[in-house]
Amino acid sequence: MVKQIFFDLGLTLVHNDMPHRYQTAFQQIGQDISLSQASRAYHLANKYFMRERQGALSQKSESVVSDFHRCVCQYLGAESVWKDFSNQLKQMERPVWRCFDFTLNMLDELNNMGIKTGLISNWDLSCRKVLEKNDILSRLNCVVVSEEVGTEKPDEKIFQEALRLTGADPSECFYVGDNYYDDYIGSQKVSMPCAIINYQGKLGIEEVDCPIVIEQASEVVDLMKKHLMTE
Ligand SMILES: [Mg+2]
Questions:
Q1: What is the whole-number distance in angstroms between the Cα of residue 231 and the centre of ligand 1?
Q2: Is the CB of residue 10 less than 8 Å from the CB of residue 124?
Q3: Cα-to-centroid distance, 31 and ligand 1 (Å)
């Protein structure tokens, strides 16, 4: 029986408005792209970096950010404008992380089912502020942040720290995240079952072998209800 679910944070419990920003930046350099084109390119660039540049996204260095913008433009078939696009984006304010529409209800529903909810995140020291501002913090029984504990996913130590803090057994836990290489590979090192979130089926993660792929974290509520019924 699942007693504890741990979540990833970015693009699992919270999202930013990058696709909107991409659309605006393209408008500013005189080109039109739709929001769905921008969302798709953002998704594919994220998946490319998760696979080919593991660990780079959490560094947020200037050169990684530039490379990411170039990658987005490649997926949009607009590589020739990537420098102008990147300059427009760098002039904008830092992106804000907000809850998905379903996040708080999902956490409440799981808690009402008797399932505790925690966080294991590769994030800097701003993590708890993001959680607090979004009313998430009070809904979690355990928060493990990479920069606070000095180890990051997919290292098994960060998962072991969450298990130590909650006293939970991995067989009674479940993990939900959007990065196969950090979230799935990492959780498997401590034998914790895991679901991976991915946009549009397996778009961008065709190479991975993960038994449970869902479109958004809220689907975990139904997964848990089915799981309870089959016990
Ligand atoms: Mg994530």
A1: 30
A2: no
A3: 29
Kindly list the domain boundaries of the chain, sorted by start residue: 4-14+97-229, 17-90
pLDDT at 231: 63
CA angle 51–67–147, rounded 5-degree value:
65
pTM summary value: 0.95
Distance 85 CA to ligand 1 centre (A): 24
Ligand 1 midpoint to CA 178 (Å): 5
Is 3.40.630.30 the CATH classification of the domain at 4-14+97-229?
no
17 Cα to the center of ligand 1, angstroms: 14
Between the CA of 30 and the centroid of ligand 1 the distance, in Å, is 32
pLDDT tens digits, one per residue of 37-89: 999 999 999 999 999 999 888 777 889 999 999 999 999 999 999 999 999 99
